[in-house]
User: Which sequence fits this backbone?
């Protein structure tokens, strides 16, 4: 069933669109290798978190066995943990999360570390505003793109006056001070419930 979806997706979007597949930490190493080898003909940009995050050796094994770029790191929280992952050659793409790693200052240290290993950082997409500022501070070789998770960003910006969303594939960098957040006092006073889609 997985390969039917991969094939259908590639046929639908064509060869000019990047495909990234997220296994949600749900596979074991042998299955991830099998799937990666089968996916290879469809030229995925990466396979994301194929196994549990503590299986660092497994990440490296999958990477070597499939030749498909491996993305991961959203469940790593420290620069020291990222160093272990990078030393093991476990990932091609680092997906550090600004919320979970300690914020912008720590993310900048992680970006510097990843740059030394020539591994790009795609900030995990829970919080678009910190991620935008991190990306803007780095070379495109270090942080080439923003990940925007629609459900999470809608909820995290629920009480913001200005909602930052992609338009034609681009999210504009805020021009207001700080992260560019202005709270919607009326929505706060109304005690309007947060809505999840």
Assistant:
């Amino acid at each position: 069933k997985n390969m039917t979806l991969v094939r259908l997706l590639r046929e639908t979007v064509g060869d000019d669109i990047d495909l990234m597949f997220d296994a949600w930490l749900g596979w074991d190493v042998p299955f991830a290798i099998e799937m990666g080898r089968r996916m290879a003909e469809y030229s995925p940009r990466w396979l994301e978190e194929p196994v549990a995050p503590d299986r660092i050796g497994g990440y490296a094994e999958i990477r070597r066995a499939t030749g498909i770029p491996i993305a991961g790191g959203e469940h790593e929280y420290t620069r020291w943990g990222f160093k272990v992952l990078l030393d093991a050659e476990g990932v091609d793409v680092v997906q550090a999360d600004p919320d979970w790693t300690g914020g912008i200052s720590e993310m900048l240290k992680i970006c510097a570390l990843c740059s030394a290993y020539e591994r790009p950082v795609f900030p995990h997409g829970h919080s678009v505003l910190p991620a935008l500022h991190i990306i803007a501070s780095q070379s495109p070789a270090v942080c080439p793109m923003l990940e925007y998770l629609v459900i999470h960003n809608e909820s995290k910006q629920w009480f913001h006056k200005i909602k930052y969303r992609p338009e034609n594939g681009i999210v504009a960098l805020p021009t207001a001070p700080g992260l560019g957040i202005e709270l919607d006092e009326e929505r706060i006073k109304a005690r309007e419930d947060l809505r999840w889609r």
User: Anything to note?
Assistant: Residues 104-116 form the longest helix (13 residues). Residues 22 and 42 are 15 Å apart (CA to CA).
